[in-house]
Amino acid sequence: MKNGNYTVVTEFVLQRFAQNWDLQLFLCALLLLFYVIILPGNILIIVTIRNDPRLGSPMFFLLANLAFMDICYSFVTPPKMITNLFSGRRTISYPGCMAQIFFIHFFGGAEICLLISMAIDRYVAICHPLHYATVMTKAVCWVLVLCAWAGAFMHSMIQAILIIPLQFCGPNEVDNFFCDITQVIKLASTNTYTLQFVMFVNSCLVVTTCFILLLISYGVLLVKVRTGSSHGKNKASSTCITHIIILVVMFGPAIYIYCHPFQDCPFDKLVAFFHTVVFPLMNPMIYTLRNKEIKVAMWRLLMKQNICGNK
């Protein structure tokens, strides 16, 4: 759309997965494979927790919400990637690009806030076990979940308020296969140095601070568990280690992407691919493989469905 002597950008051009067509097909097949695993895996966790009264503790309630957030996150970028690959198009509309940016940070921020809630839950369970039932009530759990969504919404709104007023009047090729603020902001037809600094504080410093604090808190809890009484030691220790693994899986790529703001690095696209497509699968896999209660409950649910199906 022309306006005076310049052209206002109405759509952005996304890069391919790879220049080689065979490699593109391979990555697309990999994308579809992970996509059909992510959804059933997370849905199975949610259904299992909702239908098994033995999994009624706050930890599993929060885990079900984490699985739901993973499902939402997996719908932000992969469908557009798959559509563009099979249609031969590489474009995304301006509103579509802004929506991707908003929801990437919305669902990603919600997961980070929920991980903080899960750390609070583990702290109360390990350090104040006698008061756990009275502190971590159903109402408190719902408040923690709602706070996670509210915090993520505020984070995403800050991103949207800062980027939407920008004018895009020149190049429109995004240096990635989906829209994210680190690539799109470089295309703005204005000096974005101040904005880059604000984005750096809003994304990198917040994510890094949360990661370090959570890592320290779980480390302290792990030491307390190891040096405490033997009752429930192995279960609590395994839960803390599981949460630490989730922290590294979720925060590691985010810190890599957002803590070298607006500078190209060799592994940006590879890390972005795993961060948006592969890693949402890791949460259900890690929890399922490391938690005996969930594995047993899933097996009971599947056996029950088979029995009902055979009747």
Task: Give the C-alpha Rg.
Answer: 22 Å
Structural class: mainly alpha
Widest β-sheet, arrangement of strands: 4-3-5
Q: Please name the CATH architecture.
A: Up-down Bundle
What does the main sheet amount to? Answer: 3 strands, mixed
> How many domains would you count in the coordinates?
1
Mean pLDDT: 81
Q: How much helical structure, as a percent, in the residues?
A: over 70%
Distance between the termini: 62 Å
Q: Ranges with pLDDT <50 over ≥5 residues?
A: 1-6
- Briefly note the CATH topology name: Rhopdopsin 7-helix transmembrane proteins
Shape: globular
Q: Can you identify the CATH superfamily?
A: Rhodopsin 7-helix transmembrane proteins
CATH class: Mainly Alpha
Number of strands: 5
- Taken as a percent bin, the fraction of beta residues is under 5%
